[in-house]
Amino acid sequence: MASSSYEKYDVRKRNPNPKVAALLVIDVQNYFSSIAQPILQNLLTTIRLCRRASIPVIFTRHSHKSPSDYGMLDEWWRGDLIFDGTPESHLMPELNPNAQDHVVHKNTYSAFRNTRLQEYLQERGVEELIVTGVMTNLCCETTARDAFVRGFRVFFSTDATGTSDPELHEATLKNLAYGFAYLVDCNRLEGGLFPNQQLT
Fold it and tell me: Any signal peptide, and if so, which residues (predicted)?
């Protein structure tokens, strides 16, 4: 595999502790299907690995219910918003959440803003977050940074996050590796959670 530009910043190595970790799957909704499709198999592998390690899975859904919750997103994206209840707002069917999974509804980039995500995690003793989903440089990055400053140890997936441009993806990985998150991919995650075992 070709060398990635973020590798020189990826100097801190650590594996998630499944006893205190949770997986965040951010905004893998029909609206973002074209961006999510290229990473979908890696994302499903990551979910499968976490389920196997008894790591809870949390999905986020981004949508808006009224102009009162648009904030700056309406100005920035010129009205191209996801509205609650539309087919575009639904999670992609391939994710197939189960009854034990938790879904967080949000209306801005950070999954912590105006949600009870932090309280939900703290009530369950979660200290670490594995971040996956879309878009790498918007909701995933903002949530990862927010988690870090709130005191969570952050693991950020390089191959189960995606965005509209490879340059933006790489820029996020550089910044997060430099100051906010341990980088993981499917192979590193499997090796860390299941040393000397193979995924079946």
Answer: none
DSSP one-letter code for 22: E
Residue 107 Cα distances to 82, 120, 131, angstroms = 9, 18, 18
**Structure-block tokens of residue 69:** 């919750």
Mean pLDDT value across residues 11-35: 98
The tokens describing 152, both together, are 């969570």
- Return the ∠ at Cα 162 (arms to 9 and 126), rounded to 5°: 75
State the Cα–Cα distance between residues 130 and 49, nearest whole angstrom. 12
Query: 45 Cβ partners below 8 Å, 6+ apart?
Result: 160, 186, 199
* pLDDT tens-place string over residues 67-79: 989 999 999 998 7
Homologous superfamily in CATH for domain 17-192: Isochorismatase-like (3.40.50.850)
Question: For residue 2, what pLDDT band results from cuts at 50, 70 and 90?
Answer: very low
Q: Give CA–CA dist 90/109, Å, rounded.
A: 17
Return the pLDDT at 1.
Answer: 40
* Residue 194 to residue 149: CA distance in whole angstroms: 29
Contacts for 166 with CB less than 8 Å, ≥ 6 apart: none
Q: What mean pLDDT is predicted for residues 84-109?
A: 97
Q: What 8-state DSSP symbol labels residue 139?
A: I
Q: Is 3 exposed, middle or buried (0-12, 13-18, 19+ CB in 10 A)?
A: exposed
> Which H or E element spans position 64?
none
